[in-house]
């Protein structure tokens, strides 16, 4: 393990150097599509301006051995989640409406019930596609005092920032090539900047699914997107790659649009999209067959404002198109699943015999987790005297150890967790039923004193619109995401790729959460130390 001193990072830069780097970084980002749509939209539907994504001026340090371990684990994670998504019994137990998290969580329940109905009718498409991102923090709290790698979560739907993170890494390489970063650090050398070709890696996954669908004639890939999405360029880069490298066209549609554009052939279960013809056009609209559906929407309840939105989601699920993800694969990404896997003997059920070593490797990346409704847990944590009568041990443990915990519901997209001192009060608001939808997880403790120079575009934060471009030096926490994909069915993994790139996101230590789009954090890259 390297003896890198995290508290000495970043190296000092003068105001003039920072100003110059900021200028070059912002210009590079704008010219290379490391961008968002502005918070106040220009007249839809045609955008006329973009702002650069929030970015870091210097890459964030990661020990080489831990970075390589995260990369080498990705194939194991791909396989694990493929096996979970095809294990109906496991998913029914953990996420279902009868005994699992779906009992307490309406969103999970609705998805699960739709899936159950569909599998009872018979599944038209046996293959699933997962574009995954496994997220990690460096952890200082290991037994041996050394740095470890601990998983925050595993994303199975809308795993974003692949293309933008590729461009953030390229931007840091450019700044180095241009300025040598003024010679301020011996670590800032090209051989310490790992390659990051996420766009081609993720597009390959989509293209493999498209091929496996084996359309007789022309078919396109459908991107299901949110209305008013600002992070469109991250998605567009995948579209351009699919068209330019694979000659595959992409159709973008919101759930609202799909309600009228999508039709399912009741016999063949072929999904077709019919786009409205432009006004004045004489040709009649011709339906487009869909080979693969890539969901960049559908991971939050607000994507389903009415029951009709779920009907549309289920129509897509019923189709013969390959879904990225299917409902079971989406459910497999639940925090409840992460917690259930961590229980003694659980992940071992997915990796037995000659694969037992994999279960061990994965466990080394996990913090302790438990369910708030757990009647007992094998953990030796002080439950203390405030164990209220009739309360499950899981809840008592969460109260007694609040300051070292985060509570998580079955949600994605940031901003849903409860931290530390907020926990005891929050527990009072949960009914016994509610507890079933929440897990407790020990907090990962990243290296202290590490910082970064964070740049946000004018108007980025909170959409105020009038904020100036700003570079701040901040104490930071950096979260590493590793991308991978798998195309799989019940019997086997058809193909998987565990090394398709990575994401580094950096947030100021003051914020518990780090959503880039929400403005709490910036896109960063990695310097291996
Ligand atoms: P989401 O699916 O909403 O992104 P996460 O599990 O990734 O949910 O949690 C959101 C953020 O909360 C993470 O990006 C990280 O900053 C923080 N976080 C989550 N779990 C932990 C943990 N165990 N220790 C420290 N920080 C955490
Ligand atoms: Mg997530
Ligand atoms: Mg997350």
Describe the structure.
The protein is α+β, with helices and mostly antiparallel strands and 529 residues long. The protein contains 14 helices and 22 strands. Mean pLDDT is 93; it is low at 460-465. The strands form five sheets. Strands 3, 5, 6, 17, 18, 19, 20 and 21 form an eight-stranded antiparallel sheet that branches. Strands 7, 8, 9, 10, 11 and 12 form a six-stranded mixed sheet that branches. The chain has helices spanning 15-31, 64-85, 88-95, 106-121, 162-179, 198-213, 232-246, 255-261, 307-318, 327-332, 335-342, 356-363, 393-400, 423-429, and strands spanning 35-36, 51-52, 55-56, 60-62, 128-139, 148-155, 220-224, 250-253, 262-264, 271-273, 288-295, 322-324, 369-371, 405-408, 418-419, 439-442, 451-456, 470-488, 493-497, 502-508, 521-524, 526-528. The protein is globular, with a radius of gyration of 23 Å. It binds adenosine-5'-diphosphate (ADP) and magnesium ion (2 copies). Its cofactor is Mg(2+).
